[in-house]
Inverse folding.
């Protein structure tokens, strides 16, 4: 075995280990994202449910319309759940794309013929990753705004109807 062959084997082993580390980190990020999304959904739904319970308590008229309120909360929860699912899908799609890009760049780096080529590949990859992350963050931010609006819509409509009912009953 030649010294050159041994150096190439070590470089290939190091690159393979680096690729495996990137894949493992990507998988851990996806697991953490899924866990955070689930916790966020549970916290938000609990907050909505808690606020609705506060409104209902102490008001006889609101007790009579509790079925409507539950339907509204269910509609809001459904809208929120679908929105969180859509956001999660967007992030998962982005993560898959990034993982595929990582694999392609790793293969390209392993086939590079010079250190300059490796540096160029890495630089282009990092630039593309950052640009992709910024674009995806904007897209998800817009989607999150829509989800919040969609989830709040049935609650706002029910609240307005209830206030109008109270106002009419006071006249």
């Amino acid at each position: 075995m030649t010294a050159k062959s041994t150096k190439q084997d070590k470089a290939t082993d190091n690159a393979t280990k680096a690729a495996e580390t990137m894949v493992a980190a990507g998988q851990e990020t996806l697991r953490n994202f899924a866990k955070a999304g689930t916790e966020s959904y549970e916290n938000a739904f609990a907050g909505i449910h808690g606020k609705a319970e506060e409104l209902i308590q102490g008001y006889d008229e609101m007790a009579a319309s509790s079925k409507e309120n539950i339907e509204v909360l269910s509609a809001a929860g459904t809208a929120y759940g679908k929105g969180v699912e859509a956001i999660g899908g967007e992030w998962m799609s982005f993560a898959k794309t990034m993982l595929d890009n990582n694999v392609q760049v790793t293969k390209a780096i392993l086939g590079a013929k010079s250190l300059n080529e490796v540096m160029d590949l890495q630089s282009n990859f990092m630039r593309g990753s950052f640009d992709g992350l910024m674009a995806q963050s904007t897209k998800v931010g817009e989607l999150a705004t829509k989800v919040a609006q969609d989830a709040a819509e049935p609650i706002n409509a029910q609240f307005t109807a209830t206030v109008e009912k109270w106002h009419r009953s006071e006249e």
